[in-house]
Design brief:
It is built from 10 helices and 13 strands. Mean pLDDT is about 95; it is low at about 320-324. A 7-stranded parallel β-sheet has the order 3-2-1-4-5-6-11, with helices on both faces. Helix 2 packs across helix 4 (about 85-105) and helix 6 (about 180-195) runs parallel beside helix 8 (about 245-255). It starts with a strand and ends in a 10-residue tail after the last helix. The longest helix is centred in the N-terminal third of the chain and has 22 residues, at about 85-105. Helices cover about 40% and strands about 15% of the residues. The protein is of the alpha/beta class. It has helices spanning about 10-20, 55-65, 75-80, 85-105, 140-160, 180-195, 215-230, 245-255, 285-290, 295-315, and strands at about 1-5, 25-30, 45, 65-70, 110-115, 165-170, 170-175, 200-205, 210, 215, 235-240, 245, 260-265.
Length: about 325
């Protein structure tokens, strides 16, 4: 069972499971009729993790999953600044509902709780790379919601012996991501300029922040390994274990462009709080599963730009919404 199966990571996870495992895949999607290559191969239900709890329990009882990948969440940090409560309500209550529905099965399925590197929040330079033991200093409402999801997962492991595995993925990018996120936003602007739909100008925010970027296809492979091989009750970082400046991603995309581009700063794209650098230490997870990222940044950027070129040409929109 994948909650948020129609979202960015959820869609890629569905594709990974169908291609690399013999698991029967069920999914809960927020939006009806979203186009996806896996749609005809999964048992799909449309609904919200905030649906009434008896309905969610009924869905779980019908599916009787051995594994639950809980990916449904409000995933965009700026939304949490403008409307904090919707993020807190969606992510925390949604997490609680999933855990309660899993307990009600009586079969103790393994549950993956997806947190975020944003839980670490304000990280000092001497604390890099970030380990799972680093203090949590959330500095956005979104980060607070992810800390709560993380701790709820642990609490249900400790109190109910539900086999919950928690992960804290760092920034991940790839084809199909909403333009609400920086790399996809740059690629969409470039593809539109190539198609003559906008001036050849890329509007940007802070280009100096450094983040640990990896490809979503590597991350969902990590989710699968975490749920199958991770130790219940434990938490694992997932990331590339190196940082890239936002400017490097922009320059990589511009180098792939078919038109000459100018870059303009847009103050509206700056965040209220922005850490200079974040980079993961994934030693704990690598030691457990031998996982590491395989897809290069260059391939990710090319695939993202090609995705937007194709989407603009066909008139389709990305498969991920801010609420997944």
């Amino acid at each position: 069972m994948i909650t948020g199966i129609g979202g960015f990571a959820g869609s890629h996870l569905a594709e990974y499971l169908l291609e690399h495992t013999d698991l029967e895949v069920w999914g809960l999607d927020l939006v009806e009729g979203r186009a996806a290559p896996w749609r005809s191969r999964v048992t799909l239900h449309v609904g919200n993790i905030l649906m009434d709890l008896p309905a969610l329990k009924g869905l779980f009882l019908e599916a009787r999953p051995d594994y639950i990948f809980h990916l449904a969440a409000q995933a965009f940090v700026p939304v949490s600044w403008t409307d904090p409560w919707s993020t807190l309500d969606n992510n925390i209550r949604g997490q609680l509902n999933v855990l309660l529905a899993a307990i009600a099965l009586g079969t103790y399925p393994r549950v993956l709780v997806v947190g975020s590197a944003d839980e670490y929040g304000i990280v000092a330079a001497e604390e890099l790379p970030v380990r799972e033991t680093n203090p949590l200093r959330p500095n956005s409402p979104y980060a607070v919601s992810k800390v709560a999801q993380d701790m709820l997962g642990y609490q249900y492991y400790a109190s109910h012996k539900l086999p919950v595995v928690r992960v804290r993925p760092f920034n991940h990018i790839g084809p199909g991501q909403s333009p609400a996120f920086v790399t996809s936003d740059f690629a969409k602007q470039i593809a539109e300029a190539e198609a003559g739909l906008r001036e050849p100008v890329v509007c940007v925010g802070n280009l100096e922040a450094r983040r640990d970027f990896s490809d979503v296809r590597d991350i969902v492979r990590g989710y699968y390994l975490a749920l199958l091989q991770g130790e219940p009750g434990e938490v694992y970082n997932l990331g590339a274990e190196r940082s890239y400046a936002i400017r490097e991603l922009l320059n990589g995309l511009i180098a792939l462009s078919k038109v000459s581009l100018m870059v303009e700063s847009d103050p509206a794209r700056l965040r209220p709080s922005d850490m200079p650098e974040v980079v993961a230490d994934c030693t704990k997870f690598r030691s457990r599963t031998h996982w590491r990222v395989d897809i290069s940044l260059e391939r990710s950027l090319k695939d993202i730009l090609d995705y937007w070129r194709e989407s603009i040409h066909s008139g389709e929109t990305p498969r991920q919404a801010v609420f997944t």
